[in-house]
């Protein structure tokens, strides 16, 4: 797949995922210790700013394409990542990440983020994230508290049920299961176990309808709910380090800044259209909770190149609406303009049938 096509596919998947291992020392505590799921959901949300520290491991089974800057994303969502984190608050924390691509230390403050690469002795500084902006996933997005916050943000009391309590990292953790209401959702359920004392999520598992193995799981192997010492979180570039400012990746250019999603409907398959993606006028997002769909129209040249590459790729299925492929619970469909009137790219946590129905409901080119 050429670079432009690869970026287009991954960025629509990221627009879905970012908007979205076996537990060592975990064993059931007993059915009598179950807590009300709605109350636990409220406790988890209330603990969003609770300080903590610990060691976590995440495991992903999403086989994303690799190459260039996509290698880190592919390793993160398709392999194992180990992290030590010290969290004092949303704008005062540090995380050290050990992954197949190297070791990094990330220090976040109100002024932005500094990332120190131990191997290259480089320090990359970046401004604080812009609310609503699309970006590539980072390792810290897979920490149990961060992942749970994203996945449970749209959950309602009627969507969650209690799970038996477990011991995670030597602590009692109460569990809940979020099951999407939408029958066409490709996500079977999201399981979260939260520390009984603090309410901080300790384990998160995301399961699809097509596999018994979680598409993404993350858990603490060591955890403390106390406030980390300020000196542990502090960071000063070491002598001789190369310090530079990292420019924000131009995702709009990668997807197509001249796109226009204004013709797309306000609802699709009953899913409401979300707030426009910052800087991506050609992409529309639909859905609620963990059921998400991103839609964008492809320029003719990009669409033709992408179809040619998909036809030669493994795991791609030809359907009446176009070419379809699944990356774990995330499905992707490139439509055939002879059938749908335009070349649409759809990516989301929908079943193959759901993607096909969504494509059929999109507007055709004006005659």
Automatic annotation (TrEMBL):
This is MucB/RseB-like sigma(E) regulatory protein.
């Amino acid at each position: 797949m050429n670079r432009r096509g690869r970026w287009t596919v991954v960025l629509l998947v990221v627009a879905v995922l970012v908007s979205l291992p076996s537990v060592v020392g975990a064993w059931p505590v007993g059915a009598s210790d179950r807590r009300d799921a709605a109350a636990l959901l409220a406790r988890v949300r209330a603990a969003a700013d609770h300080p903590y520290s610990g060691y976590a491991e995440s495991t992903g089974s999403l086989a994303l394409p690799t190459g260039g800057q996509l290698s880190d994303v592919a390793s993160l969502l398709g392999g194992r990542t180990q992290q030590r984190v010290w969290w004092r608050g949303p704008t005062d924390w540090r995380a050290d990440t050990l992954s197949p691509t190297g070791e990094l230390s990330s220090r976040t403050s109100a002024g932005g983020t500094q990332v120190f690469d131990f191997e290259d002795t480089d320090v990359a500084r970046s401004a604080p994230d812009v609310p609503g902006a699309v970006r590539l996933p980072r390792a810290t997005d897979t920490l149990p508290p961060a992942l749970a916050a994203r996945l449970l943000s749209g959950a309602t009391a009627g969507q969650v049920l209690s799970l038996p309590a477990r011991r995670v990292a030597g602590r009692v953790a109460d569990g809940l299961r979020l099951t999407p209401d939408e029958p066409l959702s490709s996500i079977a359920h999201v399981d979260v176990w939260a520390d009984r004392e603090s309410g901080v999520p300790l384990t998160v598992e995301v399961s699809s309808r097509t596999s018994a193995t979680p598409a993404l799981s993350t858990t603490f192997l060591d955890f403390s709910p106390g406030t980390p010492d300020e000196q542990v979180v502090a960071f000063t570039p070491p002598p001789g380090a190369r310090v530079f400012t990292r420019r924000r990746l131009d995702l709009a250019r990668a997807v197509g800044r001249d796109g226009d999603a204004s013709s797309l409907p306000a609802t699709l398959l009953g899913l409401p259209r979300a707030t426009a993606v910052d800087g991506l006028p050609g992409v529309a997002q639909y859905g609620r909770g963990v059921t998400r769909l991103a839609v964008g129209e492809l320029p003719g040249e990009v669409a033709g190149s992408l179809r040619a590459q998909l036809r030669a790729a493994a795991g791609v299925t030809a359907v009446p609406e176009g070419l379809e492929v699944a990356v774990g619970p995330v499905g992707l469909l490139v439509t055939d303009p002879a059938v749908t009137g335009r070349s649409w790219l759809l990516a989301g946590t929908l079943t193959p049938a759901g993607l096909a129905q969504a494509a059929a409901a999109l507007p055709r080119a004006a005659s």
